[in-house]
Write a structure and sequence with these properties.
The protein is α/β, with parallel strands linked by helices. It is built from 16 helices and 17 strands. The strands form four sheets. A five-stranded parallel sheet has the order 3-2-4-5-6, with helices on both faces. The longest helix has 34 residues. The radius of gyration is 24 Å and the shape is globular.
Length: 565
């Protein structure tokens, strides 16, 4: 039942006149992603949608101006993922830069308190910090009871969030959420850290200060990429500006340290390094330990302090990988026992699985099967399960869970999330009932072709185009990510040499006869036991990337799918 080689669908469109000045290879790729004009190539900050277009921002700024003027004690309430951690660091640092006494911060322990501003978190904040103003980042839009508890205790509340609101909004002093804006606001896909940055930009403008919060853009870039939000025009600008600061030797010591412990050079950082190197190490703290470890890394003011925190996070991430490997083996063994056609969705459960790692597990199984997957682990509260799900393009996971909750009242204790990722809590005894309801809801909402194993590519890449210059161009000209996928190509190649490295990765030397050259290729996690002894030709889907080894930089084909032909 493991995913086979997919059907290839090429994104080939006519290049619009507005991209005529762009190198032809890049123009072809951008046109396939909907770009049509030269103005979209400009990723400067002055092209960000202006804060005045963000509904609710005036009330938020007025509240913060009063807090600054009257010296209110402030506590930032964050979330335990990378978006929440970066948003917390951005808000703490930004307010301090804009004249506030350094705010306190609090991130709920996911295992004890769960997600969001709950009455228990309000009590904890009051006990520890005695704040007068609570500012949520990356959470709060569904915290009806928590905001009510804060207001009853005489606290003021500012909510900054980007999650979908429910039918009822909390009774906060101000709420800032792009999902509440009119459709005309062109930055509807901001991550939580992006919303926090917009608050600070508007506050800086109101204070008639210049150029301070831009120092936080590397944190904004990290949180935006790690949260896998759609890289629309606004998010591409935020990410690109953060990357440029890092490449220029600027940015926070914490982000630079996270990149270095992952073996990435900040001077050559790309968006994928934030998503696959820095982000997982930051997330590991919230998955297995306490996200305050990650936030302290981001708040570090010296390289030495940041390095200590980053090394600690790297150690936690190694532990996370070991736990994940055992869970993945158990999950795939469970999948292998399934008979008949692949169901429209899967629910997997392990009595010894770790609650903080089930999201990664769901993602891995989803990638292997091209099906939405929810993985469950026992919660700390007896009799409950915590589930984390990942979806596939064309299927909105939170909407599916909403349909289940509507059709089966009382089945879910709570749920929330996005199109591609969501979480939920239910009673262990209801797992079978939920699995059936979830699969039925997926089948009802899925289009006929959503489960077809099709992968989009940018067509074949001519042998003369497989160069280091093009690999550099495609890596660094734009930040690629969710909704703006990195360039991938397909082709058939002659194999000059091949070997297995690291026990499960296939290293290839591929001939380019038209160019009179050869190029290296790598296919990670290859089914090495099923490979023939001699391989003469392969067909694959790949990305053209730069491989740096012992000071030498060369083009390399990084295969996402590969089969012997």
């Amino acid at each position: 039942m493991v995913r086979a080689f997919p059907t290839i669908r090429r994104r080939l469109v006519e290049i619009p006149a507005g991209l005529a000045e762009v190198p032809p290879l890049l123009a072809r790729i951008l046109a396939a992603r909907g770009m049509s004009g030269a103005e979209e190539l400009d990723l400067s900050l002055n092209r960000l949608p202006h804060p005045r277009q963000f509904g609710g921002l005036e009330q938020a700024v007025a509240l913060l101006l009063q807090a600054r003027r009257e010296h209110w004690r402030v506590c930032v309430v964050g979330d335990y993922d990378a978006d929440g951690a970066t948003a917390t660091a951005v808000m703490v640092k930004g307010l301090q830069q804009l004249g506030f006494v350094r705010p306190d911060y609090l991130v709920p322990d996911r295992f004890e308190y769960g997600y969001g501003l709950s009455p228990a978190i309000v009590d904890l904040a009051r006990e520890r910090y005695q704040p007068y103003l609570l500012i949520t980042v990356d959470n709060g839009i569904a915290s009806i009871d928590g905001v009510a508890a804060a207001r009853a205790a005489g606290l003021r509340v500012l909510i900054t969030d980007h999650h979908l609101p429910g039918d009822t909004l909390p009774d906060a002093d101000a709420i800032l959420n792009p999902r509440l804006c009119d459709e005309g606001f062109p930055a509807a896909n901001l991550a939580g850290v992006g919303v926090a940055f917009y608050v600070l930009m508007a506050l800086q403008s109101a204070l008639e200060l210049r150029g301070r919060v831009v120092d936080l853009l590397d944190l904004v870039a990290l949180g935006t990429v790690a949260d896998v939000v759609v890289l629309d025009g606004a998010n591409r600008i935020l990410v690109e500006q953060g990357l440029r600061r890092l490449r220029a030797g600027q940015g926070s010591p914490g982000v630079r340290a996270l990149l270095r412990v992952a073996g990435r050079d900040p001077a050559r950082v790309v968006a994928a390094d934030l998503g696959f190197a820095a982000g997982p190490r930051l997330n590991a703290a919230g998955r297995l330990s306490d996200m305050s470890h990650g936030i302290e890394c981001l708040l570090a003011e010296s390289d030495a302090e940041a390095e200590r925190h980053a090394q600690e996070l790297d150690t936690i991430n190694r532990e996370r990988r070991g736990i994940e490997q055992g869970m993945r083996e158990a999950a795939m063994a469970e999948v292998a026992r399934l008979t008949g056609p692949t169901p429209p969705a899967l629910c997997l459960h392990g009595d010894d699985w770790h609650e903080g790692v089930v999201g990664i597990l769901a993602s891995r199984v989803k990638e292997a099967l091209n099906r939405p997957v929810i993985a469950f682990a026992p919660a700390r509260q007896q009799g409950l399960l915590k589930g984390s799900g990942r979806s596939i393009p064309g299927l909105h996971l939170r909407d599916v869970l909403d349909a289940v909750a509507t059709g089966h009242p009382g089945l879910l204790q709570k749920f929330g999330g996005h199109a591609m990722a969501a979480g939920l809590t239910l009673e262990r005894r209801h797992l079978a009932e939920f699995t059936s309801a979830f699969q039925a809801a997926v089948a009802a909402q899925a289009d006929e072709d959503v489960f077809l194993d099709v992968i989009d590519t940018d067509g074949e890449l001519g042998e003369l185009d497989i160069t280091l210059a093009n690999a550099e161009l495609l890596s660094h000209r734009f930040p690629w990510g969710q909704g703006f996928p990195p360039p991938r190509f397909d082709g058939v190649f002659e194999v000059l040499n091949h070997r297995v490295v690291g026990e499960r990765h296939l290293k290839l030397t591929l001939g380019l006869p038209a160019a009179g050259a050869a190029v290296d290729g790598i296919f990670f996690n290859a089914p090495v036991a099923d490979l023939p002894t001699r391989i003469q030709r392969v067909e694959g889907v790949y990305r053209l990337e730069v491989n740096e080894f012992r000071g030498q930089r060369n083009p390399q084909l990084l295969f996402e799918y590969l089969q012997v032909v």
